């Protein structure tokens, strides 16, 4: 499976001399374009049914472009999609390809074209991050039904977009010294309060398409529950500005979120997925990545010295034999006198001992982390495992607790505020490019 870690971006009342009454204002607010309730399409064509090809300011997006990007999505998520989900994915990918085309065209028009050498360098970096050669990644992409050209097109658009933002947006973002010091002061006041690292997929909805959007959101959740990569789906389907970061909001305090999101996140545990649920303007899917206390040391960063003592079972072991072996194992572990006695006990019962002196608590499976944190040096976890995987315990032989975290630096806070403002301006910039574009659907 290829993991790619790059970002993608992503009327008033007429002056007629008459005052509108409350009923008229309410109707206008609900239907600002004054579209008749019984509106009917003229002709036989359904504008919602389009083939997945387009011409964007003269640049062609082909059906092959769509299908290769779909294959990239499927390969990254590791899941099959229903016909309805595939159609929704194709339409979203078409929108993404249109945006990418506009970004590449805008950079070229402003004499900032992306060179093939820049794209190849980024492509090689992704291959290296995946532990592959460039040729190996080429073959992997072709094997999944995509192509190197499809991924390189996305990379070219990403580089072009960052270049455009660096020239046309970033220089006009101003963050004052007072703003940063205010944030630092609030963070100091909030020391010890809880922060949540949240992933989101937001799908815009109107009263007219609400049910269709809800069905699409439900299908996305089903795929995520089957193991699909949340960040991949967020990049392809989310309408939020966080889509470019794989839906990652970063660490936030709940009071900064809309009430509906905060109420859901407050009840979540790390690793939990919730949604879709309705918020003003659409539907949210939330994934709680992590949580922490502001300005406090995270106990999961403690570095452990562990000994793992384990037993395995031959393939023909019966349940009765396994139960007797586990009982012998439990009795031996219960009588062990600390870490120095581990090798002797293991040799007596035919167990294996593996030592690790540099593992952080956070590297352990979620269900073991709190158990380990509650142990004293020389104590062991309860036995865990199965006949197929073997039974084992972890023996705590030492723990170096993390130091209390200091406040983030002035420069880091300033950079975070600037990045947030650039992301918001980028949305507006891309919207302008779309509004000015000539797009023909075939």
Write the layout of secondary structure elements.
Layout: H1 22-30, E1 54-56, E2 59-61, H2 63-77, H3 83-109, H4 116-129, H5 134-143, H6 148-168, H7 177-189, E3 194-204, H8 210-225, H9 230-237, E4 248-252, H10 259-266, E5 273-279, E6 282-293, E7 303-311, H11 319-334, H12 342-349, E8 352-360, H13 366-373, E9 384-386, E10 390-400, H14 410-436, E11 439-441
Antiparallel strand pairs: 1-2, 1-11, 3-4, 3-6, 5-6, 7-8, 7-10, 9-10
Helix pairs in contact: 2-3, 3-6, 4-6, 7-14, 11-12
Provide a descriptive summary of the structure in words.
The chain is built from 14 helices and eleven strands. The protein is of the alpha+beta class and 442 residues long. It has a four-stranded antiparallel β-sheet with strand order 4-3-6-5, with helices on both faces. A four-stranded antiparallel β-sheet has the order 8-7-10-9. The protein starts with 21 loop residues before the first helix and ends with a strand. Residues 1-30 and 43-51 have low confidence and may be disordered. Residues 1-29 form the signal peptide. It comes from Pelagerythrobacter rhizovicinus. Residues 193-290 form the PpiC domain.
